[in-house]
Design a protein that fits this description.
mainly alpha, 2 domains, 3-stranded antiparallel sheet, 3 strands, about 60% helix
Length: about 120
């Protein structure tokens, strides 16, 4: 199958048929590709639409992989912590003992600060 090379100045004068269409090659030259039933206008329209979608970032047919992996990471992390606390009794006791001690420390720090502020305001 012979391919006919068409220069840029002959681009407008090129014969159009259903068996072949013009496709641009990186702005160097254009050639006729046999057995395509796409018009040049359809290719130009498609290229303009894809450029607009790329600029806007509107590729709705692609899956939002960031959100999928974000949710999967949350699920795995949540059940990694909670599942281990449910299954392993010693970890569960140690975790709740730590939370209880932390609560006591925060309570003492807050009450000491409040009492210091009351003393300063009184006198």
């Amino acid at each position: 199958m012979p391919h006919t090379i068409i220069l840029k100045d002959q681009y407008q004068q090129a014969p159009s048929s259903k068996a072949s269409t013009l496709l641009p090659l990186r702005g160097i030259q254009n050639f006729v590709v046999p057995h395509f039933q796409i018009s040049v206008d359809q290719i130009r329209t498609w290229m303009q639409i894809t450029k607009k979608k790329q600029r806007r970032g509107q590729w709705h047919h692609q899956l939002p992989w960031f959100y999928i992996f974000f949710v999967l990471g949350f699920i795995v992390g949540f059940w990694g912590v909670c599942g281990s606390l449910i299954i392993i009794k010693t970890w569960r006791y140690a975790y709740f003992r730590f939370i209880d001690n932390l609560q006591d420390k925060v309570y003492v720090m807050v009450t000491v600060r409040i009492n210091l502020m009351k003393k300063r305001l009184r006198g």
